[in-house]
Give the backbone structure.
Amino acid sequence: MIIDSSNYDTLSNLISSGTYYDFIGLLSDSKIVFKIDDKKLLNHIKFFIVLDSNYIEVYDKDNNLVFTREDYNLLKKKLSGIDRYNTGKFIVSKNLYYVPNIDNSSMIDDSFNKKRLIDKALPDDLDLIDTGSTGRGTNINYSSDFDFVMIVDHDFDKEDMNRRICKKLNLDYDECKNNKSITEDDNIRFREVNIPGIEEPMSIDISYIEKGTNYFYSTDMALKDRLDNIKENNYSKYEDVLDNIIEAKRFCKNIKAYKPSHSTNNPEGGLGGVGVENWILQNGGSFYDACIDFDSHAYKNNRLVPFNRFKDEYQIYDAGRNFYKGRHDEFVSDNMTESGYKKLATHIHKYLDKISQRELRTPKRGMKYFFKNRD
C-alpha cells in the first residue's frame, strides 16, 4: 500500500475520528510505503498496526525501513497486559520506586464507600460507570471528585433524569442550568454538592453516552484491564504499581505540569491524569523508568530538545478510546504545551540527577534504597 497525497486526507480523517477498524481494513498489504511528511500520522499507523497484532513493514519515500520488527515488539511491550490486542501479560519493571506513606487499600475502600453513598443518593435507575481514577485506585488523595458515564438509548430523556437527580440532591434544576452545572448538552458538572453520609462536599461529573456512537473499548476499560492483568499475574507488585502512578501524579501536580492544555480549570499543559497513568504503565509501572525514558528523549548532549521535535519522537498512546472524542488519544501531542513540556522535562532531569547523587553518597545501599522490588 502506498500512502501519498491521493489517500492522505482519508487516512487522516480515519485517525482523527478514531475509526480504528476502518483504518486497519485498509492496511491489507504486507508492506506500506509512506510518502507523506507527517510524522504524527506515521506514528499513529505504527500504533494501529500493533493494535491489530499483525506486523507490517513500513518504508519511507526513499525505501528505508522505518518500522522494523524490533520497533513493533518494543511498542507491543509498551502496551502489554491487554488481552483484546494480544499483547501478552503485563511486563512489570524491576524498578518499582519505593513510595512511603501511601495507603492504597484505605483510599480504595474510601472511594468504594463514597461511590456506594453517591449511588444511594441518586435515582435507582441511574446506572453509572466510574471512569475516573477512583474506579481504579489511582487517585492522588482521598477523593472528593468522581467522573461517571452512563450509556443510554437514543430516545433517553436526559432532561427528565437530570430533574430527578436535582430533586434527590435538593438542588434547583433551573439554577443548575443557569450556572452551567448542567451543560447545554445535558451532562452534569456538579461542584461542592452534599451527599448524605459523606462529610465533605463532592464534585460529580455525569456524562451520557449514546449507544452505537461513542460506546466502545474506552480509556478507562483499557487502563483497568492492564491493572487487572498485573493483579492476576503479579499480585505482589500490584499495589507497588499503583504507588508509582500516584507518585508520578503528585510529582506532576507539585510542579504544576499536570492538567492538560484543554482543561477548563487552570490548564497547565501537562499529560493529564489518564495521560500520567498511561505513561507509567507503558514503562512497566515504574515512575523511575518513565522518567529515564522521557529524559532520554527530552535531552540530547545535555540540552533540551525543542518540543516540536520531541513530539515527533516520543508518544504516550491511549490503548482505549476517549469517551468524549471517540478516538485514541496521544497524550504528548494532544495534552501538552511547550511550557508544560519544559517544566516536566527540566524537573525530571533535576530529579534523576538528585537520585544519581544520592546513590553515590550511599554506595552500600545503592539503588536498592530507592526501589522496592529491584533484584
